Amino acid sequence: MMGSSTQAYLKRHVAPLLPVLAAVVVGFGVCGLIALWVGLSPSLMFTQLIKGAVEGPQLAETIARAVPLVGMTLAAAVPLRAGIVNLGAEGQLVLGGCAAAIVALYLPAPDAVRLSAAICAGMLAGAAYAALAAAGEIYAGVPLLLSTWLLTYPAKGLCGYLVRAPLRDPLTAWPSTARIPVGVRLGHLIPGTPINQGLLLVAIVAIAVIVTERRTPAGFELRLRGLNERFARYGGVALERQTLGVMLASGAIAGLVGAIMVLGSQFRYTDGALTAPQYSWSGTLAALLAGGEPVGSIVAAVLFAALQTGGFAMERSVEIPRVLTMVLQSVIILFLAMRGAIWKRP
Amino acid sequence: MTFTFFNATFFDQAILGITPILLAALAGTLSERVGLFNIALEGQMLVGAFAAIAGSHFGGSLQAGVLAAVAAGILFSSLLAVGSALLRGNDIVIGISLNLLAAGLTSFLLRTLFGVSGTFSDSAMQGLPRLSIPGVDALPLLGSALGHQNALVYLSWFLVIAIAVFLDRTPWGLRLRGIGEQAPAAIALGANATRYRFIVTLFGGAMCGLAGLQLSLGSLTLFSENMTAGRGWIAVAAVMLGRARPLAVTAACVLFGLSDALGLRLQGEGLPNQITDSAPYLVTLAALTVAGLRRRRLERITT
Questions:
Q1: Residue A87 belongs to what domain range?
Q2: Choosing a second label site near B268 at 20 to 30 A (CA), which of A183, A283, B146, B182?
Q3: Pairs from B187-196 (Cβ < 8 Å, separation ≥ 24)
Q4: CATH number of the domain residue B208 falls in
C-alpha cells in the first residue's frame, strides 16, 4: 500500500508528465506513419535516430548542439513564463551574432577585451532589438506576438546586406565577414570535441534564470502574470515595466547565443548560417512543452538537441531527410495544445 | 519621373502582392469575427502552395493543382478546427505549432516526393491563365492590373464583397458575429457556436489554400521552402488594422501589396534586395504603430 505522501508526490510531480509522454508517443507515431507513407521503414528510422544521438562521439555532438538550443529555449521560456510570446528570437540571434562578429573583428583593443566586448555587443544588440518590440506594445499596443515575428525579416535582411557589401570577405565564396582571429574566439572546453566555452556562458544564464524564477520577487511576479495577468496587475505588478524587462532579458539571451555561435564555432558571421540549424524554432517548441518552466524547458531542449543530432545521422545513413525531426517536435506540441494540457485558453 | 516609376508593371506587381495576403486576411477576418484568433494562416498558405505544385505535377493538370491546394488547406485547417473550435485548446500555441509543422512537413515532402531541397519547378506545369475583362484591360496605367489577371484575383475581389454582405446583411452573418462578440448570449438564442467556428475554420483553410495556390501557380510555377515568407503574419496584421471589417482589411492589404511592389521597384532602381525585401514588414509595423498611437490618443480624449 502506498503512503499518502507518495501518492501526493506522484500526483504533484508525475501526473503532469503523463500528457507529455502521451504526446511524445503520438509524435513518434505520426512520424512513423509519414515515413511509411513515403515508403521508408519506421523501425530503421527510429533506431538510426536514437543511435545517431547518443552513440560514441555523437554524444559530444549532441551536447555541443544543446548549448545554443538551451540558450534559445531560455530566450523563449523567460517571456513565456509570463504568458508573453517572443517569436522574434531568431532576429535577435542574428543581430547578436553579427554585432559580435563586427566587434571581434574591428575593435582596436587587446584580444581578451575584444572577446568580452564582442559578447557584450551581441547581448546588447539582441536586447535592444527585443526592446523595440516591447516599446511597440507598451506605447502603441502593437501585439508582441506579431511585431517580434515581423521584425525578424528586416534583421536578417540588414545582416545579409552587411556581409554582402561593406563587411564582405572577398576571399570566400559565401557572403560572410572575415575570419575572426584565434585570440578572440571562445576556446574548446573539452579538447577533441566540438564543445566550447559557450557551454559555461549558457550554464551561467541557465542558473541565473532558474534562481530568478524560483527565488526572487521578480520571478514570483513573472509566474503570477503567467497564471493570471489581471490578478497580477491588481496585485501591483507594473506590467509595462515587466514586459520591457522580460523582453530585454530574452533578447540579450538570444543575442548571447548568436555571439557564442559566431565566436565559438563558426568564427565568422555567414549569411544564413546562424538560422540554418533552426535553434530558435526548436527552442520555442521546447519552452512551450514545459510551459516556460526553466528546468523542464532545459530538459526538453536537451532532448530536442539529441533529436537534431540523431536527425543528421539518420540522414547520412538511411537518407531520411532530417527535417522530419522538426515535424516530430511540432506534432508533440500540437497534440499537447489541442488537448488543452499545459496551456489554458487566454 | 513619377509616371515612369509608378508604371503599369508596378501596379501589376502590386496586385500579385495583394492577392495572397487578401485571401488569407479574409479568412482571418471571418475567424476573428467568430471569436477565434487564427495565427495559423501562414502555415495553411504554405501547405496550400505545396499541395498546388504536388497536385499539378502528379495529377498532370492545373485543375488537379487547384483541387489539391483547396483540399490540403481544408485538411490542414481541420487540425485547428478540432483543437481550437472543438476541444477549445489555446489557439496561439496551436497556431504556432501548426505554422512550424507546415514548414517542416513541406520541406520533408519536397525532399522525399521530389528529391530536391530548396526549390522545385517543372517546366510542364501550367500557371493560372490570365483572363481579360474587355474594356477594363484597355485602361491606361491600371489596365493590366485591374483587367488582365487570373481567376483567383477576381475571385478575391468577389469574396471581399460577398463576405462583407454575408457578415452585415444575412442572419448567418449576424449569428456568426454574435458568437464572436458574446458567445453565451448567442448560444442561449440557439446558435451552435462549435458548428459555426468549425465551418469558419475549414472555410478559412480553403481560402488559405487558394492563397498558397496564387503564390506557387499564380504568376510563377514553382514551390520553394518557406515561400510564404511571413505573408500569413502580414495578413494577421491586416485583420488587426482593419478591425476585422472586410473593406477596411482589404484597404490594409492594398497598402501592404503596394509596399511589396515598391520594394521590388526600388530593387529595380539598384537598391540591394536584402534591404528592399524588408519593405512590406516595415510598412506593416509602421502602420500598426501609427494606428495604435492614434487609437490611444482618441482613447485619452474620450475618457
A1: 45-339
A2: B146
A3: B193/B35, B194/B85, B194/B86, B196/B34
A4: 1.10.3470.10
Q: How far is CA A314 from CA A67, A224, A251, in A?
A: 21, 43, 33
In-domain check, residue B131? no
pLDDT at B1: 44
User: Nearest CA to CA, how far is B274 from chain A (Å)?
Assistant: 5
Partners of B260 on chain A (C-beta within 8 Å) are none
- Within a domain: A328: yes
Cβ of B289 within 8 Å of Cβ of A140? The answer is: yes
> Which residues, given as ranges, of chain A have pLDDT below 70?
1-3, 340-346
Name which of A248-252, B26-30, B133-137 the model is least confident about.
B133-137
The verdict on A33 touching B (C-beta cutoff 8 Å) is no
CATH number at residue A314: 1.10.3470
Evaluate whether residue A169 is within a structural domain: yes
Instruction: Please tell me the total count of domains within chain B.
Output: 1
Cell of B298: 482618441
> ipTM score of the complex?
0.90
Q: What is the pLDDT of residues B75-126, one digit of tens each?
A: 999 999 999 888 888 889 999 999 999 999 999 999 988 888 888 988 778 8
| DSSP 8-state code for residue B86 | I
> Per the domain annotation, does A346 fall within a domain?
no
* A-to-B residue pairs, Cβ atoms closer than 8 angstroms: 149
User: Which of A149, A327, A346 comes nearest B104 by C-beta?
Assistant: A327
Tell whether A65 is covered by a domain: yes
In tens, the pLDDT along B144-155 reads 778 788 889 999
- Provide the residue range defining the domain that includes B37: 2-120+149-302
Enter the pTM of the model.
0.92
SS3 B38: coil
